[in-house]
């Protein structure tokens, strides 16, 4: 779960599609080295060129860069 500011304070991210949507439509900025890397890695994962866990790690780094808190739930 991403804890974001704005109208959508909490955003549950469970799939690569939801990662892409969060990065493209809900991210507070479209700048930053980790943000750009996360977008690229997410697209690579959607295309099957990298593992989803790599995209997850990139998303967490981008969130840290943007000051977005991440709450991880492990099943």
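Q: What amino acid sequence fits the structure above?
A:
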């Amino acid at each position: 779960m991403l804890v974001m500011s704005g109208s959508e304070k909490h955003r549950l991210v469970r799939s690569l599609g939801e990662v892409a949507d969060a990065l493209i439509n809900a991210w507070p900025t479209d700048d930053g080295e980790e943000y750009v890397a996360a977008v690229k890695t997410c697209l690579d994962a959607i295309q099957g060129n990298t593992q989803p866990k790599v995209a997850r790690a990139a998303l967490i780094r981008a969130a840290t860069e943007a000051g977005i808190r991440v709450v991880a739930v492990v099943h």
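Q: And what stands out in the fold?
A: The chain has a mean pLDDT of 86.
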